[in-house]
User: Fold this.
Amino acid sequence: MLDIFSYPFVWKALVAIIIAAVVSSVVGTFTVLRGFSTLSAAITHSSFAGASIAVIYGVNPLLGALALSFGFSGLTAYASSTNERKADVVIGMIFGFSTALAVLFLSIASTYTAAAWSFIIGDVLGVSWIDLYTLIIVAVAALGIIALLYKEFKFITFDPEAAEAMGLRVSAYHYIMVFLIALFSVVAIKVVGVILAIVLLIAPAASAYEFSHDLEHMLVISMIIALIAGVLGFFLSLIFNIASSAFIGIAVSIAYLIALVVSPKRRKCREIAKCRIVKEV
Amino acid sequence: MTPVVSTRNLSVAYGDRLALEYVTFELIRPAFLSIVGPNASGKTTLLKALLGIVEPLTGSIEVLGYKVPNDKYKVRKLVGYVPQRERIDPTKPVLVKDVVLMGRVAKKGWGRGLSREDYEAAKRALKAVEMEAFWDEPYVHLSGGQQQRVLIARALAVEPKLLLLDEPLSGVDAATQDVILRVLREEANRGVTVIMVTHDLNPLMELSDYVMLLNRTVIAFGKTHEVLNEELLAKTFMRRISIVKAEEKIIVSGVDYHA
Assistant:
């Protein structure tokens, strides 16, 4: 088993998975808390379209994914910063339109089957050095932005109304947050594919939420879940010769299911002695 | 003398629905103003207009010497704001200290860390609302009244020139009301302009310097004892309101707080 580490593609794949796990857990935490799950699905699908167009023109698909997901995330951010019903419709339209674009361009491309399949289910074992450098740059950019604006994001996530009233440019931060999801989608499309990107983004953070009363704990727990699921899924895929995205998707979904069952936040006290008392002033 | 807060013929609409119509008032110097009116009378909209969150359809606004909405970000840097507690999802994973420090975050440039001074201001504010023992407690573990105090502490922590509060007395017990009103009165005495939106008239009698009765437009604006009379209240709430004196206290009855 240890022999596999003598192959560079295994190391590259493992590093890519670790990058995807770290970025997904950090970006996913804010995505879950702000209720951006549907919006994220639309953006990951637009990165699918971007990657497909890039295939036609012989450009690195990750750059295509980056370009189109940025464009569509701007539209999505605009729609979601206006009224909720309009946002729902626009996000749904972006979801459908970008998928249609992807199908159109992949149908035109001669490499249709292989390329489409790799974008849909990921191709972590096919990560090239250029892909890896791109993932590292994108991940550093995403994590750097979050580190720089962390306190502002925390305020806006908790209480956007007061954040706006007390001087934060909530609309600008909203756009940045949505662009971060676009950055994540670029990382995810290569590692787990467009379909499972959303579950990698949402499930670790949603699981961590069940055990956290402060944001820092939620980030750490989310990262641990994503890393364990990522690395475990990768090794299982090597053993069983099945796409790693399948195992990663199943692992994070099981983690969420377990979190729901054992969540301390959902616990009900059945005896007075076991109930929590609100501390008096 | 430049007024602290003034509006002239201010109207605001949401789509085709008029929320405020020709609202004119002026606070010459720092004071405690309560804005009173029934639901959907434009109270919250007026607060939002003062901050430039909603754009005026007609009229002009001046706050702390700045024109709004042109200089809205300059105004917002000087403001402590308390939203309606019900609009916040208390299950978001934050601690009490996180919430109180958020106010300080808003006043700093991006990327600038919190200093010892920020922490001290946050602790002082939490102490003012008698919640200092809850510094490390999860926000979700607090009762509604305790959460309200924490939100007020967040607004106090920024050491504002203008405090805007949207229904801070809603759904809290008498003891919490006393703490909130005492703190607000102290802030007003220190020269902070306090503007509070409320349904609850009774606590205002002794604490508020001025009262505005609002029902889409200003029904009355003036010193508290001049404005709170049965005729003006009936005109504002569109129903009969009784004012009775009991043991040196004036009590208003007949306002349906949940209407």
Observations:
- The first helix of chain A runs from residue 8 to 34.
- DSSP finds eleven helices and no strands in chain A.
- The interface with chain B takes residues 33, 148-149, 151-152, 154-155, 157-159, 161-169, 209, 212-215, 217-218, 265, 276, 278-279, 281 of chain A (CB under 8 Å).
- The two ends of chain A are 59 Å apart (CA to CA).
